[in-house]
Specification:
Helix 5 packs across helix 6. The radius of gyration is 27 Å and the shape is elongated. The protein has about 300 residues and is α+β, with helices and mostly antiparallel strands. The protein is about 45% helix and about 20% strand. It contains 10 helices and 10 strands. The N and C termini lie far apart (about 70 Å). It has 2 domains: about 120 residues, no CATH class; about 170 residues, Immunoglobulin-like. Bound molecules: copper (II) ion. The site of copper (II) ion has 8 residues, from loops.
């Protein structure tokens, strides 16, 4: 029985590490990144993974070794001093941190230093992804983002786009008007409404005005490394630039290129089926062709019933 616990903890540690090593090869890892800022988010993720991984192995290793060294033996009675030997690899550490006071200083200062580093390391990435003023700088002069309005509700994403005529108008406006433009482009009777579909163009910034009609939802585009909560009463700008497309000329998804938009906040009983799709068109012409198609459907009253409902 004495060896049982150190075996159990040892096997758990090896299994956890093994799972991380095997995950990328069996498709259990993160989805492929396809946006401009994705690699920066991934780098932060890997830094944290390495730090936590090293400390997980270190602390579990010490735990397992000590459980082994000081395992119970049948002749051990309560009050006996255990004859176990400190495992060799812990000895140098144990010689330095030989009082509870020193150990406590170490386990306070080391995590504090690491947390401080992680806090500092993410600042510029966070600012570039989340501060609206940075978005305006990232968009080149004379280029306007694809703008849409995503309003979440139990249990779907309702998306509103400016129609073709207004899109042309918007494309000529200086990009850094990003936020202010929205005042001008607030709901119009001829806007294009779709449900659970976000459309974008390769290498073109997308500016989503995110809101919710009921509870908190979370707008999550894993392939874009975008995740933002939609909060009641707030309109939150979200932006990203896709760097690859996933649909053909007809707007159909290429094989293996289904990019989902799941809700990442448990928002009620239908949460699991609250999944939209992201369609990134190769060119602006393809996007406009798609937009014109939906407009025509809406004019003729042949748009899908959901989209009609969204119009009301
Ligand atoms: Cu939701």
């Amino acid at each position: 029985m004495g060896k049982f616990w150190s075996f159990l903890f040892g096997i758990t540690m090896v299994a956890c590490v093994g799972l991380f090593v095997a995950a990328p090869f069996v498709g259990w890892w993160m989805v492929e990144p396809h946006s401009l800022h994705a690699s920066r988010v991934d780098n932060l993720f890997y830094i944290i993974l390495v730090v936590t991984g090293i400390f997980f192995i270190l602390t579990e290793g010490v735990l397992v070794a000590l459980m082994w060294a000081y395992r119970g033996t049948p002749d051990l009675k309560a009050g006996d001093i255990h004859k176990g030997e400190l495992p060799g690899f812990i000895r140098p550490l144990a010689n330095v941190f030989n009082t509870p006071h020193k150990i406590e200083i170490a386990w306070t200062l080391v995590p504090a230093a690491i947390l401080l580093y992680l806090g500092m390391a993410q600042i510029s990435t966070w600012a570039d992804i989340k501060y609206l003023s940075r978005m305006e700088k990232q968009i080149k002069d004379g280029e306007s983002p694809i703008v849409c309005d995503v309003s979440a509700r139990q249990f779907e994403w309702r998306v509103r786009y400016p129609n073709s005529a207004r899109l042309k108008e918007m494309q000529t406006i200086k990009a850094n008007a990003g936020k202010r433009d929205w005042e001008k482009f607030s709901p119009h009777y001829d806007d294009v409404h779709v449900v659970n579909e976000v459309h974008a163009v390769k290498n073109k910034p997308v500016l989503v005005h995110l809101s919710t009609r009921d509870v908190i939802h979370s707008f999550n585009l894993p392939h874009m490394r975008v995740k933002q909560d939609a909060l009641p009463g707030k309109m939150i700008p979200v932006w990203f630039t896709p760097i690859s497309s996933n649909v053909d000329k007809e707007g159909k998804e290429l094989p293996g290129k289904i990019w989902e938009l799941p809700c990442a906040e448990l928002c009620g009983w239908g949460h699991v089926r609250m999944v939209g799709r992201l369609y990134v068109h190769e060119t602006m012409d393809d996007y406009q062709a798609w937009l014109a198609g939906v407009e025509k459907q809406q004019r003729n009253g042949t748009s899908p019933p959901q989209a009609v409902a969204a119009n009301q």
